[in-house]
Automatic annotation (TrEMBL):
<dbReference type="Pfam" id="PF01263">
    <property type="entry name" value="Aldose_epim"/>
</dbReference>
<feature type="active site" description="Proton acceptor">
    <location>
        <position position="313"/>
    </location>
</feature>
<feature type="active site" description="Proton donor">
    <location>
        <position position="179"/>
    </location>
</feature>
<dbReference type="InterPro" id="IPR018052">
    <property type="entry name" value="Ald1_epimerase_CS"/>
</dbReference>
<dbReference type="InterPro" id="IPR047215">
    <property type="entry name" value="Galactose_mutarotase-like"/>
</dbReference>
<dbReference type="GO" id="GO:0004034">
    <property type="term" value="F:aldose 1-epimerase activity"/>
</dbReference>
<comment type="pathway">
    <text>Carbohydrate metabolism; hexose metabolism.</text>
</comment>
<dbReference type="InterPro" id="IPR011013">
    <property type="entry name" value="Gal_mutarotase_sf_dom"/>
</dbReference>
<protein>
    <recommendedName>
        <fullName>Aldose 1-epimerase</fullName>
        <ecNumber>5.1.3.3</ecNumber>
    </recommendedName>
</protein>
<dbReference type="InterPro" id="IPR015443">
    <property type="entry name" value="Aldose_1-epimerase"/>
</dbReference>
<dbReference type="GO" id="GO:0033499">
    <property type="term" value="P:galactose catabolic process via UDP-galactose, Leloir pathway"/>
</dbReference>
<dbReference type="GO" id="GO:0030246">
    <property type="term" value="F:carbohydrate binding"/>
</dbReference>
<feature type="binding site">
    <location>
        <begin position="179"/>
        <end position="181"/>
    </location>
    <ligand>
        <name>beta-D-galactose</name>
    </ligand>
</feature>
<keyword id="KW-0119">Carbohydrate metabolism</keyword>
<dbReference type="GO" id="GO:0005737">
    <property type="term" value="C:cytoplasm"/>
</dbReference>
<dbReference type="InterPro" id="IPR014718">
    <property type="entry name" value="GH-type_carb-bd"/>
</dbReference>
<comment type="similarity">
    <text>Belongs to the aldose epimerase family.</text>
</comment>
Length: 348
């Protein structure tokens, strides 16, 4: 196990650094301290060919100019918040508007666009990056001084574990996730339409035309949202279901997980033989299939296009503050917010 770090770029006079975690089997995870962005995950296919399985760039300028949250930590609150405001303890908080009058993924200067302090920890069987950031009271409109910590740990079981911790000096809302776009074909050789996804989920959240939750939680039974026995992503792209159509012909939906920490999310690409198992303690996962990716930039010599990657964002539900029937994302003063998600890579 080892960690290699180097200068990645400069931003407003500050150095942005890159860190590569390497295990004894040759798996590598590279991240930068700007937005805790995961820029590469290098794993073998069934023939032993090691390739990158996430979307990312080689320069900071590309992240600043083009990135739709590639590989980043998003927060304080992942997903959309309606009208960019919420009421808490009788006070209305006005958030930054960055999505058609709504608030998305923490706002204009969310966790994805700041430089985090990093500490490297090396052990015999794992290596970690400990990212820390203090989000001040009022930042992007949120209440409370929030001390946030995100830990990336790579071990010799080819597992990447992401642990989140946060504590605020005021009652607030917190919902943090990683926004990596996965493509298990390796080096973006193909799109993700023939990836097969299995989800232990029997309910999903209905969306309106602004991709905001309506508050209704629908059964997956007899729909293309039923991933319980596995289905290709393509099914939702060609579907005439109004929920798929309004999402841009695909998925951009929160699913309620029926199990936790028990292989509840399983993604596979049969051609490469690569598979990803995700386990989490979060109540839901947002499946986004890259429906909005535009073709006006390149990703390491590959022209960006729709369905080039998919996100599996383990989190609380978007806009939960406006829906009492959703699991709450409110965190009490001095209460520690904690969450852990594990990504295990293997080949079949």
């Amino acid at each position: 196990m080892k960690v290699v770090h180097e200068k990645f770029a400069e931003l407003d006079g500050q150095i942005v650094r890159s860190f590569t975690l390497i295990n004894d089997h040759g798996m590598e995870v590279t991240s930068i301290d700007y937005g805790c962005i995961i820029t590469r995950i290098m794993i073998p296919d069934r023939f032993g060919t090691i390739e990158n399985v996430v979307l990312g760039f080689d320069t900071l300028d590309e992240y600043v100019q083009h990135s739709p949250y590639f590989g980043a930590i998003v927060g304080r609150h992942a997903g959309r918040i309606k009208n960019a405001e919420f009421e808490l303890d009788g006070r209305i908080y006005h958030l930054a508007k960055n999505d058609n009058g709504n608030h998305l993924h923490g706002g204009l200067q969310g966790f994805d666009k700041v430089i985090w302090h990093v500490e490297v920890k090396e052990n015999k069987d794992d290596v970690s990056l400990v990212f820390q950031y203090i989000s001040k009271d009022g930042e992007e409109g949120y209440p409370g001084n929030l001390q946030m910590k995100v830990i990336y740990t790579l071990n010799n079981s080819n597992e990447l574990v992401i642990a989140y911790e946060g504590i605020s000096d005021q009652r607030t809302v917190i919902n943090v996730t990683n926004h990596s776009y996965f493509n298990l074909s390796g080096n973006l050789k193909r799109n993700i339409l023939d990836h097969i996804l299995t989800l232990k989920s029997d309910r999903f959240v209905e969306l309106d035309e602004q991709l905001l939750p309506t508050g209704e939680i629908l059964p997956v039974e007899n729909t293309v949202f039923d991933f319980r026995t596995g289905r290709k992503i393509r099914d939702g792209v060609v579907s005439k279901d109004q929920q798929n159509v309004l999402a841009g012909n695909g998925y951009d939906h929160p699913f309620l997980l029926s199990e936790n920490n028990n292989g509840e999310i399983y993604l596979q690409d049969t051609e490469s033989g690569r598979a990803l198992i995700i386990e989490t303690d979060q109540p839901g996962v947002v499946l986004y299939t890259g429906n909005q990716l535009s073709e006006d930039f390149t990703i390491r010599d590959v022209i960006a296009q729709r369905y080039l990657g998919l996100c599996l964002e383990t989190q609380g539900l978007p806009d939960a503050i406006h829906h009492p029937n959703f699991p709450s994302t409110i965190v009490e003063k001095d209460e520690i917010y904690r969450s852990v998600t594990k990504y295990k890579f293997k080949t079949n």
